[in-house]
Design goal:
By secondary structure, the chain is α/β, with parallel strands linked by helices. The protein has 13 helices and 23 strands. It has helices at 23-35, 53-56, 68-71, 87-100, 196-205, 230-239, 241-265, 267-281, 288-292, 310-317, 401-422, 446-449, 470-479; strands at 13-19, 41-44, 107-108, 111-119, 124-131, 137-147, 172-173, 188-192, 211-216, 222-225, 304-307, 320-324, 327-331, 334-337, 342-344, 347-350, 363-366, 369-371, 378-379, 383-384, 390-392, 424-429, 487-491. The two termini are 28 Å apart. It binds flavin-adenine dinucleotide. Flavin-adenine dinucleotide is lined by residues 19-25, 44-47, 52-53, 57, 62, 64-66, 71, 112-113, 148-150, 154, 360-362, 393, 395, 400-401.
Length: 498
């Protein structure tokens, strides 16, 4: 059934204000209007377009590394056997989803949330917004604030300090700010990095560039996966698109959790399997251990996916190569390594990552007290201790982000139904302040480690721990009760609007 928006998106006062119109904001809006069509809501989006990540990044080859049968929404089948999809297809899917459910009409573009203040007296948030084109400030009030603002800064990617950077005479490009007119045909390109972006860029540029060198300090795990899901293609022919999607999605969710569990349980075996796969796809005598053997165990950091082994193909073809070493300095003509090797370059790409940012950089205040995310405990991975009527989404690092969007969206609307049924207007997770705290995640990727002191913390027991897998969250968020002794509910105040 197609649900239609019931309230115009230009009110200054709404029941629920969603911040961000990416995968998370669109997903949150869907569940809200499906389960609570009577509630008014709006989405504010700092940029001039929806889609977030999938609209922002423009570097060659931008694509998912998750399969779209799990990265797409559960409620809107990904109707293709192409499992690893390019950014344009994902963006088209998000635009179509937003249009089909009338969600696009609720989005207020160029509207950035800069601050949000909760008032217990009014039982509402007052959100200060900034028009990102004019700088003009305004306010919106809401009963609920839903942060779907992603996890990184849009204005600036992460670049470490490189000695001698100013000496290099060619362009130095960060993938987050890819110049539309960058001509790399016939040029020697050095890509610094070994993460998902580097392994995506390199096969996309190889062949057009004279040569592409991936310069990495430390290797990552690189796993070949098929672009096309053959089983899904067969199921589509046999059972039709929708049933094929439902089965593929279940299988892939199971596979993601199973692979992660196996890697955690048998790291040595997992290392060997990945190494053997890599060796098979690389030329005979290739120094696999030098370039593809990370010092950590599989899934301690996010694994890199290469569709149909494209990275290995361009290495075999000789249009790309990998160098593992430490940068001493940039020079006029390239990069000098600490071991004396020199890499000649016409263009340097710094695929060095993102700047993680919590809650869209909004400052939160609860009844006059500023909220530092790092001082708060995470409740069920979706709320913060001591912060009333506030939900956020932070997706999985070991599975498709969107899987979490679905579970948080459902749990949120069940919580609203519970509150409606009991006449509650406010809910606040209340944590025991003496509970031992742990970092937001044990995930060891550099971009996460750099941000841990700005992210909320976990406690030492449920519901204050973040579930490591989708299956654990499905139990907690989809099937588990919403009522909880660690939530403080307060009755609706009759005199209050909206
Ligand atoms: C290149 C790349 C590839 C990725 N591939 C995958 C993948 O294959 N699988 C996977 O699971 N994950 C992947 N990720 C992670 C990815 O970001 C998420 O999966 C997902 O797209 C995040 O959606 P989101 O809506 O939460 O955040 P975003 O896509 O970041 O969208 C957030 C939106 O909120 C807006 N916003 C932020 N702050 C404010 C504010 N204060 N006020 C108003 N608006 C605000 C932003 O402008 C943006 O439009 C990838 C990330 C990158 C960078």
């Amino acid at each position: 059934m197609v649900l239609m928006a019931t309230t115009a998106g230009d009110q200054q006062s709404v029941d629920v204000l969603i911040v961000g119109a990416g995968v998370s904001g669109i997903g949150a809006a869907y569940y809200l209007q499906r389960d609570h069509p009577q509630r008014s809501y709006a989405i504010i989006e700092a940029r001039g377009a929806l889609g977030g990540t999938w609209d922002l990044f423009k570097y060659p080859g931008v694509r998912s590394d998750s399969d779209l049968h799990t990265f797409g929404f559960e409620f809107r089948p990904w109707r293709s056997s192409v499992a690893i999809a390019d950014a344009d297809s994902i963006l088209a899917y998000l635009r179509e989803t937003a249009a089909e459910y009338g969600i696009d009409r609720r989005i207020r573009y160029h509207t950035k949330a800069v601050a949000a203040t909760w008032s217990a007296a009014d039982t509402s948030w007052t959100v200060t917004t900034e028009n990102t084109e004019t700088g003009e400030r305004d306010t919106i009030t809401c009963r609920w604030l839903f942060s779907a603002s992603g996890y990184y800064r849009y204005d600036e990617g992460f670049t470490p300090h490189f000695e001698g950077r100013e000496r290099f005479t060619g362009p130095i490009v960060h993938p987050q700010h890819w110049p539309a007119d960058l001509d790399y045909a016939g040029k020697r390109v050095v890509v610094i990095g070994s993460g998902a972006t580097a392994v995506t860029l390199i096969p996309a540029m190889a062949g057009t560039a004279a040569h592409v060198t991936m310069l990495q300090r430390t290797p990552s795990y690189v796993l070949p996966v098929p672009t096309r899901d053959k089983l899904n293609a067969r199921l589509r022919r046999l059972l039709g698109e929708d049933r094929a999607f439902a089965i593929t999605r279940r299988l892939n969710i199971f596979r993601q959790v199973a692979v992660w569990r196996l890697c955690q349980k048998y790291p040595a075996g997992a290392r060997k399997v990945i190494r053997d796969l890599n060796a098979k796809m690389l030329p005979a005598g290739y120094p696999v251990d030098e370039h593809f053997r990370p010092p950590y165990d599989p899934w301690d950091q996010r694994m890199c996916i290469v569709p149909d082994g494209d990275l290995f193909r361009v290495i075999r073809e000789g249009t790309a190569s990998v160098v593992t070493g430490q940068i001493e300095t940039f020079t006029e003509t390239g990069v000098l390594l600490t071991d004396g090797r020199e890499l000649e370059a016409d263009i340097i790409v710094t695929a060095t990552g993102l700047n993680v940012q919590a809650l869209g950089a909004m400052t939160l205040t609860v009844d006059g007290t500023p909220v530092q995310a790092a001082d708060r405990f995470v409740y069920k991975g979706m709320m913060l201790s001591g912060v009333p009527n506030f939900v956020f989404v932070f997706g999985y690092t070991n599975a498709s982000w969107t899987l979490k969007v679905g579970l948080v969206g459902e749990h949120f609307t069940r919580l609203l139904s519970h509150m409606d049924a009991h006449g509650y207007g406010t809910v606040t997770p209340v944590a025991d302040a003496s509970m031992p705290a742990a970092p937001f995640t044990a995930f060891a990727s550099g971009y996460i480690k750099r941000a841990l002191d700005r992210l909320p913390r976990q406690g030492n027991r449920p519901p204050w721990r973040i579930s490591p897998t989708y299956s654990a969250d499905a139990k907690l968020l989809r099937r588990g009760p919403v009522d909880d002794p660690e939530l403080r509910f307060e009755a609706v105040k009759e005199s209050v609007s909206p």
